[in-house]
Design a protein that fits this description.
The protein is mainly beta and 517 residues long. Strands 8-9-7-6-16-15 form a six-stranded mixed beta sheet, with helices on one face. The protein is built from seven helices and 24 strands.
Length: 517
C-alpha cells in the first residue's frame, strides 16, 4: 500500500475528507462525526501525531505515524485549520470566588451577590466547608456541589470538583465552551498537624482552555495573628508537593496561576485602630499594616504573584447574621484573611476587571470575595508559511545570586532549556562552585517543531536552573522567557527572575534571537 492515499479524517463542519500520503501504519482508521478535537500533540519522535477525538458521549484515540517530519507538520496544519475554522474565542471572562463558609450551610437563595452569572469560566473555592448535610443530600460535599450547581443553572456544566477535608473547589463553564477544555487534573497537599491533617493546606486544579494553561490553588493557611512564618511555610509546602499534570513547582509551570482562599494573613494593628480606620474608610492606611503585603514586598512568600488593589473592608471576623460591626469574640483584629492572587508568564495577556467582597452573605464569620479577569486565549494556530524553518539562539548567558545547592555554600549550576514545542531540550555546561555563573561563548540553539512567527509569538521557553551533584542534580529554580515581540530576527536582551517554592532564586541574563533559514 506504499504511496497510496488513505482517508484519515472526516470533518463535521463541511464534510470534507482529508487525504494524507506517506502514512506508515496500515491500521489507521477513518474517524467519523467528530465534534471536537480535544487533544492534539506532535510527539517528540517528530513523526507521530497523537489525537484524542470526542463526539456525542464517545471518545476515540488515534495515533498516526508518518515517514517524514514534514509530512507530520503538513497533517498538523490541516488539523489546526479544521479547529480554527470554527468560531473560537480569543478571550474569556474568568470568575474566581472564595469563601470560608464557617462550617454552616448557606442559604440556598443567597448566592447571587457573590456568584453573578454570565462569565465563561467559574472557579469557586470554599474553606471550613463541613456542615451537617441538609435533607436529600448524602454528605456536605454533595450538598455544597449540588447547591452551587443549582445556582449556576442549566447553562453551565461542572468541569471538575476537588476536595480535601473542609477545603473544596468547583470549576464550571458554559455548556457551549466545555469542548474547549482539556488536560484537567487535580492534586491536594495537607499542611495541618504533621502535614497529614487536611484542615489546612491546598487543593489544586489545572486545565487548558484551548491552548492556554491555567492553574488554580485554593488554600487555607495557618491561623492566628502571630503565625506569619507558619503561613509562609504552608505556601512553600503546597507549592513543593502539588503535582498537576506531572508538573512540580506548579506556580511556575502554567501560563496563569491563581492562588486564593483563606490565606489568614492579618492586619498588624490594634483592634480599635483597625475598626476606627474602617469607619473612616481609610483602607490605604489599613493596607500599609497588612501582613501579606509586607511579606510579599519582602519577597518572603508568593514571589512573582500580584494582587489587585483592595477596595472593600476586611472580611473577617463578623458575628454571624450581621455585618454592622466586627465580632468581639476572642478580640480578633479585623483583617483581610480572604485573598485572590495571580501570577502570569506574560502579564499583558490578562486583565483583572473586578475585586470585590460580598458582605450580603452572613451565615459565616467571613464574607466571601471574588475577582474577575479578562484572559487572552491562545487559539489553535494556522500557519502562514509552511516551508519556513528557524533556530532560536540563546547566548551571553549568565546568572546572579543563585541559591546554594551544596553544603559549601555554592552550587555547580547549569541551565536546561525546555519546551514541549521544541524538538530537543538543550542545556549548558555546568560551572563549578559559584552562585554567579557565566556561560562564556556558549550558544544554545533550540529548534521548534513549527517555525511560523505568529506561532512563536505565543510561545515560552522554560529556563531551569540545576545544581550538578554526584548522583544527578538539585533543582535551584525556574525562569520563563516569553518570545512575544522577539521573533522578527533581532537580538533581544533579557533579565528573568528565578523562582522556587514561591521565593526568589536569583536572576538569569542573556540574549535571544530567532534565525530563519
Amino acid at each position: 500500500m506504499k504511496g497510496k492515499k488513505r482517508k484519515i479524517l472526516l470533518f463535521p463542519s463541511n464534510r470534507t475528507i482529508v487525504y494524507m500520503p506517506k502514512v506508515k501504519n496500515d491500521h489507521v482508521k477513518k474517524v467519523m462525526r467528530v465534534d471536537w478535537l480535544n487533544k492534539f500533540k506532535v510527539s517528540k519522535k517528530k513523526k507521530e501525531i497523537k489525537m484524542n477525538f470526542k463526539w456525542s458521549d464517545k471518545s476515540k484515540k488515534l495515533h498516526v505515524n508518518f515517514t517524514t517530519k514534514s509530512a507530520t507538520q503538513q497533517f498538523g496544519y490541516l488539523i489546526r485549520a479544521m479547529k480554527a475554522s470554527q468560531d473560537l474565542p480569543d478571550h474569556i471572562s474568568l470568575f474566581i470566588g472564595t469563601w470560608n463558609v464557617g462550617n454552616a450551610p448557606p442559604a440556598v437563595d443567597s448566592f447571587h451577590p457573590w456568584l453573578p452569572l454570565g462569565h465563561d469560566l467559574y472557579v469557586i473555592g470554599a474553606q471550613e466547608c463541613e456542615y451537617v448535610a441538609r435533607k436529600g443530600y448524602s454528605s456536605c460535599g454533595n450538598d455544597w456541589c449540588e447547591t452551587i450547581s443549582a445556582h449556576m443553572g442549566p447553562d453551565y456544566v461542572l468541569v471538575k470538583k476537588a476536595s480535601m477535608w473542609q477545603i473544596r473547589t468547583l470549576v464550571f463553564t458554559k455548556v457551549n465552551l466545555m469542548n474547549y477544555i482539556s488536560n484537567v487534573d487535580k492534586s491536594i497537599e495537607p499542611t495541618g498537624i504533621g502535614s497529614v491533617m487536611g484542615n489546612k493546606g491546598g487543593v489544586g486544579v489545572t486545565l487548558n482552555f484551548l491552548e492556554t494553561s491555567l492553574c488554580f490553588i485554593n488554600s487555607h493557611l495557618a491561623a492566628h495573628q502571630e503565625n506569619i512564618n507558619d503561613r509562609n511555610e504552608d505556601v512553600k509546602e503546597v507549592i513543593d508537593n502539588l503535582h498537576l499534570n506531572k508538573k512540580k513547582d506548579v506556580t511556575t509551570m502554567f501560563e496563569h496561576a491563581f492562588w486564593f482562599g483563606d490565606l489568614n494573613y492579618r492586619i498588624e494593628n490594634s483592634r480599635e485602630q483597625v475598626i476606627q480606620k474602617v469607619h473612616e474608610w481609610d483602607l490605604e492606611a489599613l493596607y500599609e499594616d497588612d501582613q501579606l503585603k509586607s511579606q510579599m514586598e519582602s519577597n518572603k512568600v508568593f514571589f512573582g504573584f500580584r494582587e489587585a488593589p483592595i477596595t472593600f473592608k476586611p472580611t473577617y471576623k463578623f458575628d454571624r447574621g450581621t455585618r454592622n460591626e466586627y465580632s468581639e469574640d476572642r478580640n480578633r483584629v479585623p483583617s483581610w484573611c480572604d485573598r485572590i492572587l495571580v501570577s502570569s508568564w506574560n502579564p499583558t495577556t490578562i486583565h483583572q476587571t473586578d475585586y470585590h467582597a460580598s458582605h450580603e452573605l452572613m451565615t459565616s464569620d467571613h464574607s466571601p470575595i471574588y475577582g474577575t479577569f479578562d484572559v487572552e486565549i491562545s487559539r489553535p494556530w494556522v500557519p502562514a508559511d509552511i516551508g519556513r524553518e528557524c533556530t532560536i539562539g540563546l547566548y551571553n548567558l549568565r546568572a546572579k545570586n543563585l541559591n546554594s545547592g551544596d553544603s559549601n555554600g555554592f552550587s555547580d549550576p547549569y541551565l536546561k532549556i525546555q519546551g514541549d514545542w521544541i524538538e530537543i531540550n538543550q542545556k549548558t555546561t555546568f560551572i563549578k562552585k559559584t552562585l554567579n555563573p557565566i556561560w562564556k561563548d556558549e550558544v544554545i540553539a533550540v529548534v521548534p517543531f513549527v517555525s511560523d512567527p505568529d506561532y512563536l509569538e505565543t510561545k515560552h521557553l522554560s529556563l531551569v536552573v540545576l545544581d550538578k551533584d554526584r548522583v544527578g542534580y538539585v533543582l535551584l529554580g525556574r525562569a520563563t522567557l516569553s518570545l512575544a515581540g522577539k521573533v522578527d530576527g533581532g537580538e533581544y536582551n533579557f533579565s528573568l527572575p528565578v523562582r522556587k517554592h514561591g521565593l526568589p532564586g536569583g536572576t538569569i541574563f542573556g540574549t535571544v534571537t530567532v534565525h530563519y533559514h
